[in-house]
Amino acid sequence: MPEPTPLTNPVLEAIARRRSIRQFTADSIRREEVLAILEAGRLAPSGKNNQACRFLPVFAGEAGQEALAKLTAYGKILRNAQLLLVVCLDKEHTYDQIKDSQSAGAAIQNMMLAAHSLGIGSVWIGQILAQEQAALKAVHLDPERYQLMAVLCFGRPNDPNAALNRQPLSTFLLKSV
Question: pLDDT tens digits for 95-130?
């Protein structure tokens, strides 16, 4: 269980309770839920408000799902998900690699928290970046224009009580508060 926080509210509760879910049921995700998750990603901050993140939804059963699954050691997770979101940076809208990558991370976190708030589990697959060119081509995106940031997997949690092991806050602090 996460450490208690001095203040509680729905956002802090969602952050504390969200888990990476790697096993999903066969239950589908409604279109309205997909749109809410994507909207959360769109609303993430970006340096100079350049909004370089792009999202490609891949639904269960689409060819892109299997094509991506073959490119990662975590293929079983991708095959089991009801929705994959391919998160990219549009190189025509980027200005700084670090800041744009941070913006993608913020969008990813927003979408995972939004999913959690809707009872949808998610996991961030970063290992697929080792196959970036092949992954982009597998979903018909131009590697000259797009940079892969991650593939996110979403579905109804098969194990909503997945463990979360985090080090205590003191481990992260460089100075006491």
Answer: 999 999 999 999 999 999 999 999 999 999 999 999
Domain assignment present for 13: no
Token duo for residue 70: 């073959």
Angle of helix 31-42 versus helix 97-117 axis, rounded to 10: 150
Amino acid at 174: L
The domain that holds 122 is classified in CATH as: 3.40.109.10
The answer to whether residue 43 sits within a structural domain is yes
C-alpha torsion 79→84→89→91, nearest 10:
70
By three-state DSSP, how is residue 109 classified?
helix
Q: Are 49 and 166 contacting, i.e. CB atoms less than 8 angstroms apart? A: no
Tokens 């969602």 found at = 14
Range of the domain at 23: 19-157
Burial of 50 (0-12, 13-18, 19+ CB in 10 A): middle
8 A C-beta contact, residue 114 and residue 37:
yes
> How many other C-beta atoms are found inside a 10 Å radius of the C-beta of residue 137?
14
